[in-house]
Write a structure and sequence with these properties.
16 helices, alpha/beta, four-stranded mixed beta sheet, 23 strands
């Protein structure tokens, strides 16, 4: 029989798309990386084995639930949709050192505890290293068989002879197929190795758990088609300096997507966190400026998270926007809304937003919390400790309804929160939650007034009088500004004055804005015009009146020159 010659094909290193000829870029995903050479496979080399029976009518197929294999970790079982499905292939990815090997070893030991035999294929660590980890985790290892092998063909020969109940491969990037000439870890090798393992698992109805590496961008290393081949993709996320880990499901053919499990790294391995909201808010302190709590939906479960914001004068002409846990583009939009609709001086400020605990918040329901945290940091006024803010913000500052608001508020009430700021369109849902006072507002300005009420004008003026008496530079600026405003009062389009007209540093003027002495009259790309607030005018007149009656003459006396 004549040997069939295998023609060369070309694959994209980003998405795994196959092309019959070489070109400088991938037409499927637009990547500019050159295509790599890999051998084509025969038409019979499908992902799954061909069905022996013919086509079946959809109406005759049973809709009974697929039996599940519990992993004895309720959080992981919930992310998977109830446990492992026989014949399913699950890909678990994460940063180096995040705990992937620890978690899959615990899951393998859990499967063995019910009398099942599990094969653990390791291409990175020796049996002694895995045994040492098992001893630290308190795992005996009965029923768990270790195999240090990287050849897929050799692995399949061992598996056919043992017929285990489940298989763990750590990691798929270390496996290689003898029929592919490229090196282990390449696009062709990862794709072909995963195909052979998947075909074996599907044909024997045995669950397969693959551990995958990630690139520096945080995506699974290897071809993009790898994520399409498997049944479920799980990401283990977290900060290396924090004990909390987030197991996120981004794909699941047997359950809902975007479910998360909150785990904690301890000396005994990864342990479940039964109450994620309480764990994420456990170290929150009262009276902290720039801290607001919101409720986000992670799959089918509401979780309360703390959003922190910090603003500081920027050393660059334009302030930077740094987001950790929220979308960068969303943060830029919210900062623009705050500057335009609330008049916050953010042009020369660096704005940093962080979601505590390493949770990634993707939904717009956290918009209101992010905006209020930034406003709290700018004004220096803390938001109430027992206040939760939920709502999506529009470009005009209006609040929009968010889905499943009642479930979010019930979770907040369970943890002792007594006040909630919600969109006005959701008044009926908020009223049904017992023990929680809901403030239904229509605009961001109203929400800020609820959580950060301004002080009464009389007491504010009295405080500003004391401020002017103790701050000679502020008193001098106020005096000069009064003269400038008197001169420009007759102008029909008076917009205010700039920093050089009062011979003051811009940083000092920004400080006086936060203190309530100045407000931003207008803003352009090249300049900011300031004006005195009503409280500053009243404070200045009150101070002059007190000095006329012989009360406490000092360096802040507006009628005298201040050096």
């Amino acid at each position: 029989m004549a040997k069939v010659e295998r023609k060369a094909a070309f694959f994209c290193s980003s998405c795994g798309n196959e092309s019959p000829q070489w070109m400088g870029f991938c037409r499927a995903c637009g990547s500019q990386q050159p295509l790599v050479v890999a051998p084509t496979v025969s038409p019979a080399a499908a992902w799954v084995a061909a069905a022996s029976e013919g086509p079946a009518e959809l109406a005759t197929i049973s809709t009974e639930d697929v039996p599940r294999i519990p992993l004895n970790m309720s959080e992981v079982d919930r992310v998977l949709g109830g446990g492992l499905v026989p014949g399913s292939v699950v890909l678990m990815a994460g940063d180096p050192g995040i705990g992937k090997s620890t978690l899959v070893l615990q899951l393998a030991a859990s499967l063995c505890s019910s009398g099942r035999a599990v094969f653990y294929i390791s291409g990175e660590e020796s049996a002694h290293q895995i045994k040492g980890r098992a001893d630290r985790l308190g795992i005996g290892g009965k029923g768990l068989f270790l195999l240090g092998e990287t050849s897929v063909e050799a692995v399949l020969r061992h598996l056919d002879g043992a017929r285990p109940a489940a298989v763990v491969v750590d990691s798929i990037q270390t496996m290689y197929c003898e029929g592919a000439p490229s090196t282990p870890g390449s696009v062709a090798q990862v794709r072909e190795s995963a195909r052979l393992l998947l075909r074996w698992a599907k044909a024997r109805n045995i669950p397969l758990l693959l551990v995958g590496h990630v690139t520096k961008e945080g995506e699974v290393a290897g071809p993009r088609v790898l994520e399409h081949m498997v049944d479920a993709v799980l990401y283990l996320e977290g900060d290396s300096v924090s004990a909390l880990r987030i197991l996120r499901g981004v794909k699941n053919r047997f359950g809902s997507t975007n479910e998360v499990a909150v785990l904690a790294m301890t000396e005994g391995g990864l342990q479940e966190v039964p109450d994620p909201s309480a764990a994420l808010l456990g170290e929150r302190r009262a009276g902290v400026v720039g801290s607001v709590v919101t409720s986000v939906m992670q799959g089918s479960r509401p979780i309360l998270v703390e959003v922190q914001a910090l603003t500081a004068p920027s050393s660059l002409p334009a302030g930077r926007r740094t987001a950790n846990g929220v979308d960068q583009g969303r943060l830029v939009m919210l900062a623009a809304v705050l500057a335009q609709r609330l008049g916050l001086p953010l042009a020369g400020q660096d704005v940093i937003v962080n979601v505590v605990g390493g949770l990634e918040v993707q939904e717009p329901a956290a918009d209101l919390a992010v905006a209020l945290a930034i406003a709290s940091s700018v004004r220096g006024v803390p938001v109430g400790e027992r206040t939760v803010a939920i709502g999506e913000l529009g470009l005009s500052g209006e609040l929009r309804r968010v889905p499943q608001l009642e479930r979010r508020l019930r979770e907040a009430a369970r943890l002792g929160f007594t006040q909630a700021v919600v969109p006005a369109s959701a008044t009926e849902q908020a009223a049904e939650v017992e023990g929680l006072t809901a403030h239904a507002v229509m605009h961001l300005r109203e929400a800020a007034a609820v959580v950060m009420p301004r002080r009464e004008r009389a007491s504010g003026a009295a405080d500003l009088v004391g401020l002017l008496r103790n701050d000679a530079e502020a008193a001098r600026i106020v005096r000069v500004a009064l003269d400038l405003e008197r001169q420009g009062a007759a102008a029909p389009s008076y917009l205010g004055w700039e920093w050089h007209q009062v011979q003051a540093a811009p940083a000092k003027l920004r400080q006086m804005v936060l203190q309530g002495l100045l407000q931003v009259g207008s803003r352009s790309a090249s300049a900011i015009c300031y004006r005195l607030t009503v409280g500053a005018r009243e404070s200045a007149s009150g101070l002059v009146a007190q000095d006329a009656n012989g009360v406490a003459q000092g360096p802040a006396h507006l009628g005298e020159e201040v050096p």
